[in-house]
Every structure is written in C-alpha cells, then in structure tokens.
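DM from R.C. (forwarded with permission)

"hey, sorry to bug you on a friday — could you get me a structure for this? deadline for the figure draft is monday and I only need the backbone to look sensible"
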Amino acid sequence: MQHGIALTWSRSDNLPNATFNVYRSTISGQEQQAPPIATGVSVTNYLDQSGTAGTPYFYVVTEVDNGIESAPSAEATATYPTVPGAPISLAAIAQ
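My reply, with the result:
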C-alpha cells in the first residue's frame, strides 16, 4: 500500500489541455511561497508521498491552460501519516 496524502479536486472549466500545479506548505496560507511540488498534472488527483510523518501540510491547486495559471483553489489540509515500524525479534525454529 502506498502511504501519503491523497488529494482530489474538480476542474473549474472544460479545458481539455489544462494541467494542474500542486502547492504545499506547513503554514496555512503560505502554499505558493515555494515552488509547486508537482506541475503538469493532467488528472484531478495527486498522491503526495514526499512528506514527513506526523507533519500537517496545507495544499492548494491551480489550473494552467496555455501558460496562464488560475488563482489557487481553496486550501485543504491533512497530516502526513505515520508508518508503523517493522516487527522486531522475529524467530524461526524448526520443529
């Protein structure tokens, strides 16, 4: 199973050549202060697998058509999942 934060959204217009940029920040309202974590996304979903476990992230998405970028979407937030540690002290005994 893949771990991360799954984002989904809807297209604002029926623009067949439009793509999306995904922005992320650890501070609400600051998503576009850094470069996008994904550009040219052609579908309306994205799995962010580059976060740090237990860290809350804030996201916005923009739509890009013919080089023109839209205003950002409403903000969404989620906390990056903590992956459980591997079991320890495994033993195998021949019977």
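R.C.: lifesaver. DSSP finds no helices and seven strands in the chain.
me: no worries. The beta strands are 5-8, 19-25, 38-41, 45-48, 56-65, 68-69, 76-79.
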